[in-house]
Amino acid sequence: MNQIPLLQFKSLAEALVSLFGTSVAIQQTDRISGGDINKAYAVTLNTGDRIFMKANAKENVGFFKAEAAGLFAIAQTGTLATPKILCAGTDDGQEVGYSFLLMELIQSKKPVQDYWKIFGRELAALHKSDASAFCDGGAFGFFEDNYVGATAQSNAPKKTWIEFFRESRLEPQFKTAASNFSSQEMSRVTKLLDHLDDFLIEPKKPSLIHGDLWSGNVMAGPDGKAMLIDPAAYVGNSEADIAMTELFGGFAPEFYQAYREANPMLPGYEKRRDLYNLYQLLNHLNLFGKSYLGPVLSIVDEYVS
Questions:
Q1: Which residues are catalytic?
Q2: CA-CA distance, 195 to 182, in Å (whole number)?
Q3: Which of 71, 86, 144, 304 has its CA 20 to 30 A from that of 192?
């Protein structure tokens, strides 16, 4: 797979006309809170339709193309719900240009009974689905680079998971964060990277994963079941998704029980979990500052004596 069927326009007006007809007009735009990267709006049209719009600087249209690619890939597996992508584009605007992504506006409903059990089973189905179409030229990676938060994420295909996690995940983050570490600490980092195969194992199969799976990126959809948003998707190790769910408080116990029943995890996951989350904590260190340095060093010390 080399591209997704994403409509791209040179103005918001052009996009709306293409989607809703020549008589379309915006009646109301309501700002939606949440997220620290993009501005978000609920847009009401004179057609009676309401859509969701994300906006950012014009040069950041790549954020939206990458998000659309991840949502499209997850949707293709037919396992978990995702918002429908309408189109993306750029607009010169009246004063300053901007980029935009138009999606269906999700009317979230009360979670169904057994919400967490169903979510666990559906995530297991995502991880067990055939991911070969999403990574050409290797077992692990993605058909295009994307972002985790605001951080560029390389998805160049690699033959092994450990190679991919070292070269495309940990090494770039440590390089960006290098000024935060002493020479002694960097020596321990180098030792960890050089001996990563002492701690990680290859998965049973490559899995399409969400890539940034915490509670803020899951919502109850119109049917009351879990819907995934804001992915940093790639073909990797399913354990990395599960580890991320545990980083900031964790999901309900029923989620993990249902997931493990549907997709049993290899022995020793608990000993590998912190290494997967080292990537996420490094990204937070690089994005939000030194409050994350202690947890990063603690994980390095956990694996390097």
A1: 212
A2: 20
A3: 144
